[in-house]
Amino acid sequence: MSMTDSTEPVPVRSGAVSLILADSRFPGGGHVHSGGLEEAVERGLIHGTADLRPFLAGRLRATGELTAVFAAAAAHAAARGVTRRHWAVLDSEFDARTPSAAQREASRAQGRGTARAASAGWPSPVLRELLAETPRPHHPVILGVITGMSGGRPVDAASTAAYLAVSGPASAAVRLLGLDPLAVNGIVANLSRALDDVAGRAAAVAGDDPRDLPAPGAPALDLLAEAQLRHHKEEVRLFAS
Amino acid sequence: MKATAHLTAEFDPVTGRTVLRRLRSMAPLTLLPKRGAGDVALVHLVNSATAPLGGDELALHVRVGPGARLRLSGVAATLALPGQRGGAGTMAVHAEVAEGGRLDYLPEPTVVTARARHHALLTAELAADARLRTREVLVLGRDGERPGELTTAMHVTRGEVPVLRQELTIGDALLDGSSAYLAGRRVLGTEVVVAGSDGAVEPVSGQWWSLTPLPAGGALATVLAEDAVTAERELAEAVSHHPAPIG
Amino acid sequence: MPAEPDHDDHDGHDHGGHGHGHVHPVNFDPTAAEPDPFDAAPEGGRACRIGIGGPVGSGKTALTAALCRTLGEELNLAVVTNDIYTTEDADYLRKAGVLDPSRIEAVQTGACPHTAIRDDITANLDAVDELEERFPGLDLVIIESGGDNLTAVFSRGLVDSQVFVVDVAGGDKVPRKGGPGVTTADLLVINKIDIAHLVGADMDVMTSDAHRMRGELPVITQSLVDTPGAPAVSDWVRSLLPITTA
Fold it and tell me: In terms of residue numbers, what domain contains C56?
């Protein structure tokens, strides 16, 4: 593994790093997060594939859009080279766009897990600076940093983040409801165009001032996330979020 | 219709009360000063015409000086209606609250009627120890009516620090129905409280409401309800868990 | 959810130099020095981590409680529990009064207990980090898996040593069936031997099968009814401390 240096231009490479990060077997802790799906199932809002489809589509347009934006922005920043302070700014801007304390914790838990894997997989000065500034970075930010310093484009980072916003809950649905994995995969596959659209929109603003980045909210996901955390204390929950 | 209204409240050290230094209405935005309680200045915001309509560009600038306290309330629900040319209407509120100041901006619910296209924007710039309370209740159409489109953006900053940035969309069938977004519920309510003792806010939630601490101070209450009365009741319930004196 | 791997190489044997062909870049900048991220051996100063795995109902939690009771006085120890029922195991340990509740962390496994201890150990590592931060100088962290099947073993990235617990009620054929848990765990515990006669389990068959399947690796038979302090397993744990890096 060669060390990358932030001052040297990194050749544009895409594909491999995104595949590794988006792989459900990537050991970054994603498998214990259902993205609000477990709480939705507990409430009887989702019984089967017919209910899962709009849940995932909505999650993509809300959380997926937000995480794609920050992954793209972080990839852009990692590739162009930024001061250490920039990572703190991105962190606080993502924080301000994530009003649910439970969602912030879920994002940081996955960011921390991804950081642990990245320290072994992609050691680099950029990564060290990010982690020195934000030891528990938000998940999309570190996805973007890994992508950007590996030569991936902002759109690649955005695709990864957007995909993970739906693939995690989709997998959780299979586990919790025993849904046909082929049917669930079909739903995810049907979101391909929407995923690309989300990634494209995110990449288009990747170089913007972090203060001006889009801030799509998701009221129901916020409520589901808060309730999931509350219920951890009183009843059976299999997922951390 | 284009209109910009201005409201400036300042603390008068001689009387110990907040006075309105500038109060400039512009139709359809009418500002009515009322007799305040104690040291708080009270102003009603009245939409004097059927507004906002598609195509309207309405702006309200509010400044709260050091130590001043202003409460700006709505008096009736707002109907966002389609304009004759079908363009989108905008209502932008920009607030600045100086050191030790407090602004309560509490408009009544907005009903997004069929075929309306409306953008709402609130930006609030707070000094380090300024306080803010603001509420937004959005109703998806009148009874039995499919809603038009409304986007709303809220940006609250304290100095250089972002407190809350949130953009929401209603009237998009996919999002309205998704259990990840509005979950098919007809009313979305949010209330931001930035007070002195935000550090002590513990997350608290019910089935369809929550109060959650914001990471840079402040707290956000969120409600999804079937009707506006329930939304307001549950917002009040959520905010009642905030340790600071809110009312 | 990751599929079952064919068979993980958990034995640490060096297969003819496999994996040693990398060229490591030499960097003379001392600030750029990185700890070897691939070294799973415990570093000096961090707690020894022991995994306790095994099928549902074999007595993992009871063994964990017994170890806490016996070793809790002499060692600075903490527990991570992976039981699928969120805080149930942690609550059991708390109610048993064997360990200060703040020394117990429960992790969610996303409905895949074996993934959480083997394929993606993030949540468990987070819990260990949390405990080490809370109790500096921890000697031992016991990580109890959720009940799973005979193929579930701990990743060497998570634990230094692991115990696989089976019980006589599961049938005396269990050791013969093998599987990574029975064959590769550092210690196999055959539990509940006091009820062997009630369930028709032949202890001689179980222990001889176990030894045959495990070669030189140790096997302990025990009953927590007869010996509530799990003395033999406690001694085995003591033998692992302090950590010596091989």
Answer: 45-231
